Each structure stands twice: as C-alpha cells, then as structure tokens.
Amino acid sequence: RFFHKLLRDAGMVHSDEPATRLLTQGMVVAETFFRAEVDGGRIWVNPTEVEVQRDERGRITGAVAREDHRPVEIGAIEKMSKSKNNGVDPRTMIARHGADTVRLFSMFAAPPEQSLEWNEAGVEGMSRFLRRFWREVATHAARPDHPEVKVAALTPEQRELRRALHETIAKVGDDYGRRLSFNTAIAALMELLNSVQKFDDASDQGRALRHEVLQTMVLLLNPVTPHICHALWQVLGNAECVLEDIAFPRADPAARVRERVTLAVQVNGKLRGTIEVAADAARETIEAAAQAEPNVALFLKGQRVRKLIVVPGKIVNIVVG
User: Fold this and answer.
1) Cα gap 133→191, rounded to integer Å
2) Average pLDDT of each block of 10 consecutive residues along the chain (321 residues)?
3) Which of 62, 57, 68, 55 shows the shortest CA–CA distance to 31?
4) Cα–Cα distance, 145 to 142 (Å, whole number)
5) The domain spanning residue 274 has which CATH number?
6) Domain boundaries, position 30
7) What pTM does this model have?
8) Considering 213, 239, 256, which residue would you say is the last residue of a domain?
9) How far apart are CA 199 and CA 118, in angstroms?
10) What is the DSSP letter of 244?
C-alpha cells in the first residue's frame, strides 16, 4: 500500500489504493509459560513443551514441563513471538491432523479482523467435524443408488431439509463473498451437517435429497478444505476434476420459503412459551394459538388481556392487567 501511494505521488499510477477493499487481519495469540530466575528474569517455555491441567470450563489451572515434570508459571495470552517463545509450528499440527484441519480451525476460530487465539483443543474439534463429515458421506455412498430429487414429490420433512440446504447456500455465499466472515460460514455448515444426521429417511427421495445436500456441502467447504473435498467429491460418484472449475452453488429462493414458523410468546414482556404456526397464518389464528399455549394460558388465567401485539414471523406479546 505504501509503495502504491509512492507511485501515485510520482504520477506512475492514477488510483489512491492498490485494492478496492482492505481487510486488516488480526494477530495470532497464544498462551505463555515461563520459569522465574533468581535475578528476576524469565525463561520462556514453548507451549508444545508444557502439559496443562484445565478445569471443567477449559481454563488452565496448572502446568508442568514435559521434560522434567516440574511446575511452570502461567503467563498472559500474548501475540506469538520469539521473545515469549510461544510460537507454534503449524507443521506439527499438519502432521498430526492434516492441512485441511489446520486451515479450517484458522478460519473458524475468530473473524479475520480479530485476534485468533491458538488452541490445540480447537484444532482437535475441527478434526472431529471433518471425520464426522467423511463418515456421513461414506455411509451415504455405500447405500443403494437413488433417483433425481423431485421437488413436487417431497414430504414436509424433506422440504424442511432442502430449505435448510438453500438457507445455508445463501449464507455461506454471502459470508465468503461480501462479509468475509468465514467463521460464521463454517458454523452454518456444521449446523447443516447436524440436520443431515438427524434426517432418517431411507426412501428414494430421501436418499436423493441427502445426496444433493452432501454434494453441495462438499462444494461449499472446498474453498477452506480443498484436499478432503477433492476426495469426497469422488466418493459421491463424481469423476475426478478440479472443484474450482465447478460453479459455486446458488440458492433457490423458492426452496427458502418457510411453510411453518416458530413464534415466541411473551406475557407482559416475559417469555412464557412458543407456538408453531403456518407461515401465512392469519393474525386471528396466531392470537388464538398464543393464548391457547398451555403455559401462557396459566399466566392469562384470571387476567384481562389489554393488548395483543403480533410481530409477523417473530413474536407475540400479550399485555394483561
């Protein structure tokens, strides 16, 4: 950026900035450990050379050096540096978990503009997610072949999974392209995998829909974990190719339309229950369902409803007194 502005001032380029959009990345930070010397100095110990004890919330309660099993002091969480000896060689993690896992953790651990706290437990969590995804794809691929998805023939449960798929496509595409929010994109894919694992439908259309979801997930994850996605694409029965040459998935607006919605019901501003109604339910139907909800009815008993506010798709607030 400095050189670009220098060239601009010299009249050699005619724009103020070298790029149309600037993203300033955060730093990578990690825990620090040390031993105090007699003269007040500190000998810093690398995190890979320390065994830590944690409480039920994951907070460090103690640490000992792996070499001599003697205690070490726990320092602050600081940016990785040679002076604090808290740098972690990514090659160690890559050798243990694979490059895709390390990439996935780096994208998921924090928004790119914020500091990323290196956490080996987090890397292991990403490894578990990828193994779970692999098992789901492999299990599906081992089942009988399936027809194409027929949207008009889908059951309500199948339509709900397809809606979740296209909601995820829209979110991931927006997070990658506009928001540069990679952590929320990955979180959305984790939620979609949970939905797939809960989807217990072995019918022809159920298997076809599961195939569509898993194949789309491979394309959505490919920018972050290209190696495993390259392999899974073939596990799903596709020919070997460069996935970057395949068009990125696009959401179907019709598939994203909800048939039913869940509304929170408040009484005098306090949550007392939830109701599920058709997305296009009339106001009178929503009001009746809200007042008939068992727990809500307890708080309405003997009270006069003074006002009833319906915020479509979100909440019902009943004022009594």
Assistant:
1) 12
2) 94 91 85 92 92 84 92 93 90 91 94 86 92 97 91 92 97 95 96 96 94 98 97 96 95 90 94 92 94 94 93 93 86
3) 62
4) 9
5) 3.10.20.590
6) 1-87
7) 0.78
8) 256
9) 34
10) G
